[in-house]
Design brief:
- Chain A: This is Acetolactate synthase.
- Chain A: Its EC number is 2.2.1.6.
- The structure holds 2 protein chains of 2 kinds.
- By secondary structure, chain A is an alpha/beta fold.
- In chain A, about 40% of the residues lie in helices and about 15% in strands.
- Chain A is built from 24 helices and 20 strands.
- By secondary structure, chain B is of the alpha+beta class.
- In chain B, strands 5, 6, 7, 8 and 9 form a 5-stranded antiparallel sheet that branches.
- Classes of the chains: A alpha/beta, B alpha+beta.
């Protein structure tokens, strides 16, 4: 039977088991939208902006572990989608974005709503295709899903000219994966290297496991847990790794990096063997490599993407492979040869770490009636039993969410870690709630970030997506202001908002419940009420008026080492700085580092 | 350090721009690039001359390999290889220069491919530094125009780059 190109697309997506497509119609994709209407094969979510459609598809992928799908039109539709695509690319999220294109006879003529989508998206996709032959359409979609989900995942764009959606062809969707000779990701680690890594780790006096988003993308949380348990080593995770290891576990030192915990940062800096799994030594994690490597250490690096290995730091044992497979194999070797770090060395190491941990770097004073942003996150964690899905935007609120919500499982934390895209929070919450309707979903945001995609309140109303928006409103672009305070002599250049909307009225205008909370004593009750509304199917927009000048600490400033943190006030008062500088004077001998 | 990379890539529209885009996006420089289809019509082979230290070259190689359409990447400098570049050079040739240029062309195993009463156009092939040396010998003043293909390289002996 002959089908139109548009019908082929719809049938192909169905064949991939697609549940939701997030998109926005337009001239070049009218055929596809007609086919969606007629064939009714999946649910289409009409967002209010293409960027949000792509973010929502991304969130659906992060939550479900499946490939997210977005559909946008040519020209401005495609360019609006670019931020979403780049966001997914930075965080290696499997996603297929179908973009409409002007008809093939018009390509290259600067036609109405024409843009070189393949050219524009090339630097921020895992791969992209322009389909000019209808016979190639189904196999291309198959390949797109294959490439998006395998190896190091990422977004794939399929650009389809309008006439291709109108042409007719026989449809058969490939059942098996298509062989792509130039694309054969390595998933099994090299056994020799794995043995070497196990021995190196076992010889460590001050070992640390450093994990990133790869643990979550690679579904390797259990293996990570088993390895950490077996070796008795401490572990720390990146912003993208949150939830990859239970936050309330004793062996977890908290997040590391620019706003990492005191204990995690010092342990990473002082470690003699670092096992990096599914993490890429991002500048937000190790700051400057030279400072990170000042303390001699051996580095083992496991990553499915060879180009991530030894990109920023030299690596002693590189292992290319799927983190789940490699960790499982390492556990096997450890068990067989009883190759784990020496107990006495570890005890000493843990003593040092516990000493750092006892400094309680995330303590804050919540005694005043002015709401501390940290307090809101802490209370939220309490009333949701640490188990809600949390999305966040970008800024101080993001770091407060990361520091104060104890994530207990993978895929519970959705965040633009790589690109740092403001405006992801609300569309992420939409996508997450659709992927996991039984979960409570909260978007922790700021008054700056939320306004970057606030129009999606309308989408949430249309599809009855009951989430809670928690706005930590300090009237500033807080993180920028924090930097201006610390590094630009308090010159608050364009960070102060003096005309914020009335968010309560705004939420109500969109048909939702709005709340304003101005006192610490009201926070808990308000959150409980919101959760109640939520469970009754209402979206709640909470505007928490918080302390204007609260900053995020600890902080590793630009160009500083992980052991050169700016500490919170309560630690400074107890001469914490000298403690940081004392790192050579501890109960172990740094000269004996191998 | 100067490096020559040999790349086998799908012969598809847009494949080459991915390679070029990779270099510009990561602030690596391409000193020369030559590309043509191979004996297998579905494959193109590129020779990329670039420079950088070990880490940079390692990253370039890894990033190239990461491109979906790239099939193989070989750093020719890792063992012995042959390198050739073609240059056409138009010289201002009058008076006693005419004989001199003919002799020079012969020394460099070049050929005169076009003549007027005031110019010679000479074709020379060889390693890039040989062509550089020819231009140096001739001297800037006499050079009217040059056009070069960029290096093409191939491993010596049994060493081949194939899928």
């Amino acid at each position: 039977m002959q089908l139109s190109g548009a019908q082929i697309i719809v049938q192909s997506l169905k064949a991939e088991g697609v549940e939701y497509v997030f998109g926005y119609p337009g001239g070049a994709v009218l055929e596809i939208y007609d086919a969606i209407y007629q064939l009714n094969k999946f649910k289409h979510i009409l967002t209010r902006h293409e960027q949000a459609a792509v973010h929502a598809a991304d969130a659906y992928a992060r939550t479900s572990g499946k490939v997210g799908v977005a559909l946008v039109t040519s020209g401005p539709g495609a360019t609006n989608a670019v931020t979403g695509i780049a966001t997914a690319y930075s965080d290696s999220i499997p996603m297929v974005v179908i973009t409409g294109q002007v008809g093939t006879p018009s390509i290259g003529t600067d036609a109405f709503q024409e843009v070189d989508t393949v050219g524009i998206t090339r630097p921020c996709v895992k791969h992209n295709f322009l389909v000019t032959d209808i016979n190639e359409l189904a196999p291309t979609i198959k390949k797109a899903f294959q490439i998006a989900a395998s190896g190091r995942p990422g977004p794939v764009v399929v650009d389809v000219p309008k006439d291709v959606t109108q042409a007719m062809a026989k449809f058969s969707y490939p059942q098996e994966d298509i062989f792509i000779r130039s694309y054969q990701p390595v998933v099994q680690g090299h056994t020799g290297q794995i043995k070497k890594a196990v021995q190196m780790f076992a010889s460590a006096k001050r070992p640390i496991v450093y994990f990133g988003g790869g643990i979550i993308l690679g579904n390797a949380s259990q293996e990570l847990m088993d390895f950490v348990r077996l070796t008795g080593a401490p572990c720390t995770g990146t912003l993208m790794g949150l939830g990859g290891f239970p936050s309330d576990d004793r062996q977890y030192l908290g997040m590391l990096g620019m706003h990492g915990t005191y204990e995690a940062n010092l342990a990473m800096q002082e470690a003699d063997v670092v096992l990096a799994v599914g993490a890429r030594f991002d500048d937000r994690v190790v700051s400057v490599p030279s400072k990170f490597l000042e303390k001699p250490k051996k580095i083992i690096h496991i990553d499915v993407d060879p180009s991530s290995i030894a990109k920023r730091v030299r690596v002693d044992v590189p292992i290319v492979g799927d983190v789940k497979n490699v960790l499982a194999e390492m556990i096997g070797f450890c068990g067989k040869q009883n190759a784990v770090p020496n107990r006495d060395h570890l005890d000493k190491w843990w003593k040092t770490i516990e000493n750092w941990r006892s400094r309680n770097c995330l303590w804050f004073d919540d005694s005043s009636e002015t709401i501390k942003p940290q307090y809101v996150v802490k209370k939220l964690a309490e009333i949701t039993n640490n188990s809600a899905i949390i999305t966040s935007d970008v800024g101080q609120h993001q770091m407060f969410a990361a520091q104060y919500y104890p994530f207990t499982r993978p895929r519970q934390w959705l965040n633009s870690g790589g690109l740092g895209t403001m405006g992801v929070g609300l569309p992420y919450a939409m996508g997450a709630k659709l992927a996991a309707p039984e979960q409570d979903v909260f978007c922790i945001t700021g008054e700056g970030s939320i306004q970057m995609n606030i129009q999606e309140l309308s989408t949430c109303f249309q599809y009855k997506i009951p989430i809670t928006v928690v706005t930590l409103n300090n009237g500033y672009l807080g993180m920028v202001r924090q930097w201006q305070e610390l590094y630009y002599s308090n010159r608050e250049s364009e960070t102060y908002f003096d005309s914020l909307p009335d968010f309560v009225k705004l939420a109500e205008a969109y048909g939702h419940v709005g709340m304003r909370i101005e006192k610490t004593s009201e926070v808990e009750a308000a959150l409980r009420a919101a959760l109640q509304h939520n469970r009754e199917g209402r979206l709640v927009f909470m505007d928490f008026i918080t302390d204007k000048k609260q900053n995020v600490f600890p902080m590793v400033g630009n160009g500083k080492g992980l052991d050169e943190m700016v500490l919170p006030v309560h630690m400074r008062e107890t001469k914490a700085d000298s403690d940081v500088n004392d790192v050579t004077d501890r109960n172990y001998d740094t000269r004996s580092v191998p | 350090m100067r490096r020559i990379l040999s790349v086998l890539i799908e012969n598809k529209s847009g494949a080459m721009s991915r390679v070029v885009g990779l270099f510009s996006a990561r602030d690596y420089n391409i000193d020369s690039l030559s590309v043509a289809v191979t004996e297998d019509k579905t494959l193109s082979r590129m020779t990329i001359v670039t420079h950088g230290d070990e880490t940079v070259i390692e990253q370039i190689t890894k990033q190239l390999n990461k491109l979906i359409e790239v099939i193989k990447v070989v750093d020719l400098n890792e063992s012995r290889f042959v390198e050739r570049e073609l240059m056409l050079v138009k010289l201002r040739a009058a008076g006693k220069d005419r004989d001199e240029f003919l002799r020079l062309a012969e020394i460099y195993r070049g050929r005169v491919v076009d003549v007027t009463d005031r110019t010679y156009t000479i074709e020379i092939t060889g390693a890039t530094d040989k062509l550089d040396s020819f231009l140096e010998t001739v001297g800037q003043a006499q050079i009217l125009e040059t056009v070069r293909t960029g290096a093409a390289g191939i491993g010596r002996g049994e060493r081949i780059l194939k899928i």
